[in-house]
Amino acid sequence: MNMKKQIYTDEELLTRVWDREHIQDVMSLRVYYSANEERRREINELWVTEDKYRKTASFGKNWGFYTGMDSIQNYYIVEHQKKIGAYIDACGYMTLQPISAPSIQIAADGKTAKGLWYSVGHQEIPFEDETIRARWVAMKVAADFVKEKVTGWRIWHLLEVSDSYWEPGINYHDEIPVFEDPENDLLHIEFGTPDIEVKTHDRQFCWADNYPGMPEPYVTFSDEISWGPEGFTPMERWGE
To answer: What is the pTM for the complete model shown?
Structure first.
């Protein structure tokens, strides 16, 4: 989104530098909380708390969005714990998705921000039969943030869009099908049935859709630029 170059005072510039550091800290803490299976702590400390934002919060992946904090918590904590409970007691559970290459834009009004990272890591994907299947996963991680009055910068919309994933120890070129059956897509199975079902990104077309794209400078937040379901339109994915 093109906008005129903003002129900030020294105090405003310092505030924006601090805001950027705070946003980076939020996303870094999420990596560690997730790796430690501290998902409830993540929700309580890093996600929005004010009612007006909780209602419109979202967690999206390649196949759609969970919307509202109650639905997000049910998927991210309750259903996840059902799947890993017995397994983690017996064997432990190891997943790590570090993030890098941050691209962050803070709104000119200072009330919201958008960020994009890339992640290459590994996930153990739990199933109801108490088995765990490991995968290497590469993905974009995008987030909209809001600066709450009491708690400061919080995650409002989070989007994890996987680019590729593969099983350790196999030949990627020879043994992974180009067009995978969705019923065998482990990440799809793990994501379950979101509140809004829509294909945000199809891995087999690489990044032809460029979704989510690089965040651009903006003045104030609007639904059109949201990385929640409000801002997603399939037409934009293909430049039509």
So the answer is: 0.89
